[in-house]
Amino acid sequence: MEVVLSTNRDTYYPGDLITGALQVRLTQPLTIQKAVVTFSQVEQTRVRVVGLFPQSSRHLHFLATDILARDGAVSLAPTSWKPGFTRFEFQFSIPRTASPTVNIDDENHCLASIEAQVEITGTPLQRWTKEIAILPTQLILAPFVDSLISRSIRAYLNPVHSCFDKSDAILAVWRVENLARAPVRDVTLELQQKVVLRSKGTTTKSTKKTVLSISLIREPITRGLSQHGTARLEIRDLELPYSLSSMSPIAHQKKSASILLRYISIDYILVLIIQTKAVRICHKVPVLIGPMHYETKSSVEGLPAYVRSRVQEDQARCELLERILVERDQEIELLQERTKEDGNARPVCCICLEKLASIVFVPCGHLCTCESCDKSLRNRECPLCRKAIEQAFPIFT
Question: Which interval of the chain is the signal sequence (predicted)?
Answer without folding.
Answer: none
